[in-house]
Amino acid sequence: MEALLVRERYKVVRVLLAEECYAFAEAVDILDREKGTCLLNIYEGPLLRTYLPYFDQMQSCPAFRGMFLDGESLVTVFDDCVGTPIDQVFYRGDRHHWRTRLDYAQRLLHQALSMADLPAAVSCAAMLSENVRIDFKSGTLALRFQVVPLEGMVPRELVYLTCDQLRKILLPRSSSPVEELMLLDELDRGNCKTVVQLYALWRERQGALQAAYEALDKKNFFQRWCALLWGRVKRWSARRKRR
What we know:
Elements: E1 5-6, E2 10-19, E3 22-29, E4 37-44, H1 46-51, E5 64-70, E6 73-79, E7 84-85, H2 98-114, H3 120-126, E8 132-135, E9 140-143, H4 155-169, H5 178-189, H6 195-217, H7 221-242
Antiparallel strand pairs: 1-2, 2-3, 3-4, 4-6, 5-6, 7-8, 8-9
Helix pairs in contact: 2-4, 2-6, 5-6, 5-7
């Protein structure tokens, strides 16, 4: 595969996915090696006609380098994305500090907000778990644009996918204050219809959530245990009232 050239410019170094009418590859722009590797999404057949208008609406996406037709294929070019998939970073039993969790929750929501105006077929694919990449060394959360074909995507689906990723970062733990648990309950109720509403909810709760964690840090073990227990009683009571 090292010798494969796309449009005599992009040297394919690795094919990451190949299926009917779609392929995803890592490549090098031999005319601009300073940019390093890039990512190619290649669509053929009916997918070409479907995705061509989507990628004509990508002016607001910084990672998008452009698109072109190569024979009977549509090729889209994106910046490469470093980091580890979110599922390998945030998972049940991990040991991340609460400040790290709040920081990366904010970064995730910034990414979702930046894609609010992109076609849903593109933004939803970028928010799949394999594409949400975290690099602690550089302190970044970035999205890899492996835009796999997805059917029936609408803007509401981006909200659902973002909430799924947010729950991985803020997953319920024994050390979670009630403010965090109640935020997760609100996400489960699905009241946010757009990523703008989701981000507004986060900004509304973010200060109280940080204050709750800071208050727990000041307590001794017994005081913290009592506070967390009381918080769970309040949450249980609130859930009963809603039923």
